[in-house]
């Protein structure tokens, strides 16, 4: 019996149960994007969300004005300061979203088999017989027999809080619909979704541009969620607009796929966007559930990956791959990577290591001939959305290999941070990835008592 070999291959040694447990640990490797709304915009609630693991705060501009969301983001800044936890900001655009406006905010009940008129006249009061909408071209976009859904957030028309209707007649700019499922609509704003129909409205509207140039610019947004992305050109147009707004040229664009048109052009969108958000709610209306299984086939994906794995790697990707392999082999507690742009850390995280990746962002000094400033804050916050990646912003006075007056290098600060967070303990192994001069180095260290 080869007992020595057996012990080496055991994923967990039985004796490990006698070792002291780590007091704390980073939150789950999967990151959480939280939408800050009416019930989650106070400093206390936001602080609790940060403590619970929220990494990115999403601001949905389909409701609320600039002043409303500015008050919320100020509360977020206070919560970040009090909890000492980084949090990125994501602005979610409205785009060509169609909305039903209920100024009175009174609940509206619609009965099955009744008729309701959708009108672009927003001055009229919403009722069970008439619903004002924010789009004047609806009657030109639909035809009798088309399906329309109205509700909030995730809806299918089968709940008591959303409506499923069928277009019965077109009267000028008005659309007469037959209610197929009765429900009660509560609130001041509802989303209107037309199944399988293209709405002739720009993806990045003038209202969106106004919000980005004012609120987004003021708050240096880290991510732009581009709602209802339909073509790669939508992403290019948004990026061109951001490039004219100072530091927002660094903002990452996430294409939000919400309809079949976006799915049709998915490959080209993927080439342009920094990330993709799949809107399960709207797509769930347009596509039957069984179609979702065709989107991803694990077996085919694995074979495709193996087929292309022999292609030459870049120098940086080779280092990232080696760091992850080394960490797995020595069962490291954490991978520490020094970076200025964040790219090296993202490449390491791409290989989905089983241990957390601590990204130490080294700020860089830059000037625009008028003032001096440090980069690094954007890069650190944008790392928050990547699986298993936990950023910390280093002191710009201390490069990775230099020491301060107290003889503490940035590496020691990072190791101390790991111990304080409970991610490492004495005698743990740590893999460090950093640049020394022009050379990229991967080294393994063992922590002392």
Automatic annotation (TrEMBL):
<protein>
    <recommendedName>
        <fullName>Pyruvate kinase</fullName>
        <ecNumber>2.7.1.40</ecNumber>
    </recommendedName>
</protein>
<dbReference type="InterPro" id="IPR015793">
    <property type="entry name" value="Pyrv_Knase_brl"/>
</dbReference>
<keyword id="KW-0460">Magnesium</keyword>
<dbReference type="InterPro" id="IPR040442">
    <property type="entry name" value="Pyrv_kinase-like_dom_sf"/>
</dbReference>
<dbReference type="GO" id="GO:0004743">
    <property type="term" value="F:pyruvate kinase activity"/>
</dbReference>
<comment type="similarity">
    <text>Belongs to the pyruvate kinase family.</text>
</comment>
<comment type="pathway">
    <text>Carbohydrate degradation; glycolysis; pyruvate from D-glyceraldehyde 3-phosphate: step 5/5.</text>
</comment>
<dbReference type="InterPro" id="IPR015806">
    <property type="entry name" value="Pyrv_Knase_insert_dom_sf"/>
</dbReference>
<dbReference type="InterPro" id="IPR015813">
    <property type="entry name" value="Pyrv/PenolPyrv_kinase-like_dom"/>
</dbReference>
<keyword id="KW-0479">Metal-binding</keyword>
<keyword id="KW-0324">Glycolysis</keyword>
<dbReference type="GO" id="GO:0030955">
    <property type="term" value="F:potassium ion binding"/>
</dbReference>
<keyword id="KW-0067">ATP-binding</keyword>
<dbReference type="Pfam" id="PF00224">
    <property type="entry name" value="PK"/>
</dbReference>
<keyword id="KW-0670">Pyruvate</keyword>
<feature type="domain" description="Pyruvate kinase barrel">
    <location>
        <begin position="29"/>
        <end position="323"/>
    </location>
</feature>
<dbReference type="GO" id="GO:0000287">
    <property type="term" value="F:magnesium ion binding"/>
</dbReference>
<dbReference type="GO" id="GO:0005829">
    <property type="term" value="C:cytosol"/>
</dbReference>
<keyword id="KW-0547">Nucleotide-binding</keyword>
<keyword id="KW-0808">Transferase</keyword>
<keyword id="KW-0630">Potassium</keyword>
<dbReference type="InterPro" id="IPR036918">
    <property type="entry name" value="Pyrv_Knase_C_sf"/>
</dbReference>
<keyword id="KW-0418">Kinase</keyword>
<dbReference type="InterPro" id="IPR001697">
    <property type="entry name" value="Pyr_Knase"/>
</dbReference>
<dbReference type="GO" id="GO:0005524">
    <property type="term" value="F:ATP binding"/>
</dbReference>
<dbReference type="InterPro" id="IPR011037">
    <property type="entry name" value="Pyrv_Knase-like_insert_dom_sf"/>
</dbReference>
<dbReference type="GO" id="GO:0016301">
    <property type="term" value="F:kinase activity"/>
</dbReference>
């Amino acid at each position: 019996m080869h007992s020595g070999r057996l012990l080496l291959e055991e994923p967990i040694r039985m004796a490990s149960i006698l070792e002291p447990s780590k007091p704390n640990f980073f939150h789950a490797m999967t990151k959480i994007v939280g939408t800050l709304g009416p019930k989650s915009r106070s400093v206390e609630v936001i602080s609790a969300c940060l403590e619970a693991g929220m990494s990115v705060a999403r601001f949905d501009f389909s409701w609320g004005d600039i002043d409303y969301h500015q008050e919320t983001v100020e509360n977020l800044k206070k919560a970040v300061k009090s909890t000492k936890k980084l949090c990125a900001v994501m602005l979610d655009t409205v785009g060509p979203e169609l909305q039903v406006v209920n100024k009175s905010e009174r609940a509206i009940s619609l009965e099955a088999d009744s008729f309701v008129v959708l009108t672009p006249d927003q001055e009229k009061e919403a009722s069970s017989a008439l619903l004002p909408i924010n789009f004047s071209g609806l009657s030109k976009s639909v035809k009798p027999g088309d399906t329309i859904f109205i509700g909030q957030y995730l809806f299918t028309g089968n709940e008591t809080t959303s409506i499923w209707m069928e277009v019965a007649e077109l009267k000028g700019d008005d659309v007469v619909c037959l209610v197929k499922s009765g429900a009660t609509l509560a609130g001041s704003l509802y989303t209107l979704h037309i199944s399988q129909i293209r709405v002739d409205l720009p993806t990045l509207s003038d209202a969106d541009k106004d919000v980005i140039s004012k609120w987004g610019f003021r708050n240096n947004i880290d991510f732009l969620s581009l709602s209802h992305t339909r073509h790669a050109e939508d992403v290019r147009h948004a990026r061109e607009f951001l490039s004219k707004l100072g530091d927002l040229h660094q903002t990452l664009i996430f294409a939000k796929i919400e309809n079949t048109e976006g799915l049709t052009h998915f490959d080209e969108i993927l080439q342009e966007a920094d990330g993709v958000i799949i809107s399960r709610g709207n797509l769930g209306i347009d596509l039957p559930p069984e179609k979702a299984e065709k989107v991803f086939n694990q077996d085919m994906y694995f074979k495709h990956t193996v087929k292309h794995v022999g292609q030459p790697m870049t120098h940086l990707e080779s280092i990232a791959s080696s760091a992850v392999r080394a960490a797995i082999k020595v069962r490291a507690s954490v991978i520490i990577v020094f970076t200025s742009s964040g790219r090296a850390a993202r490449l390491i995280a791409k290989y989905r290591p089983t241990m957390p990746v601590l990204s130490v962002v080294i700020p860089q000094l830059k000037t625009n001939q008028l003032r001096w400033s440090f980069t690094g804050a954007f890069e650190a916050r944008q790392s928050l959305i990547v699986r298993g990646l936990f950023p910390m912003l280093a002191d710009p006075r201390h490069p990775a290999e230099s020491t301060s007056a107290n003889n503490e290098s940035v590496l020691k600060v990072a190791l101390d941070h790991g111990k304080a967070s409970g991610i490492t303990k004495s005698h743990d192994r740590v893999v460090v990835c950093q640049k020394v001069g022009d050379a990229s180095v991967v080294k393994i260290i063992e922590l002392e008592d």
